[in-house]
Amino acid sequence: MDFVYNVIVALHLLGMAAVVGGWIAVRSGRTVTAPIVWGARAQIVTGLVLVGIASAIKDDSHEVNNTKVAVKLVIALGVVAAAEIGAARARKGRDTGPLLDIAGGAAVANVLVAALW
Fold it and tell me: What share of the chain is helix, strand, coil (3-state, %, to 5)?
């Protein structure tokens, strides 16, 4: 089960890399791209799977802090919402406004919550 957990962690980190890396890459173009949207979606799905696996495993190495999980979930939902709305606006040729920066900045904030809490 540890192998599956570690694979999901790797996928979770790749989702984060897609959001943050995509944000940095297209920052000057000011448009939300598909990798950002898919990375945000991957973050939600893999994060929920990680919490489920960690909750099912009853040992000290996989202890779940539900408050931290709730904070990270709210931030991740903000990232997904900003990415989805920004991508929809970009497909219609409309200005995405600050949605790209909201998605990227919130993803960085989520990384800081994960690492510093």
Answer: 80, 0, 20
Nearest of 22, 16, 20, 17 to residue 34 by alpha carbon: 22
Distance CA 113, CA 31 (A): 26
pTM, to two decimals: 0.90
User: What does residue 33 show for φ and ψ, rounded to 5 degrees?
Assistant: -100, 165
**Per-residue tokens: 28:** 């000057």
- Inter-CA distances, 73 with 48, 57, 77, Å: 9, 20, 6
The DSSP code for 7 is H
Cβ atoms 32, 95 nearer than 8 A: no
Confidence of residue 7 (pLDDT cuts 50, 70, 90): very high
Give the tens place of pLDDT for each residue, 64-85. 899 999 999 999 999 999 999 9
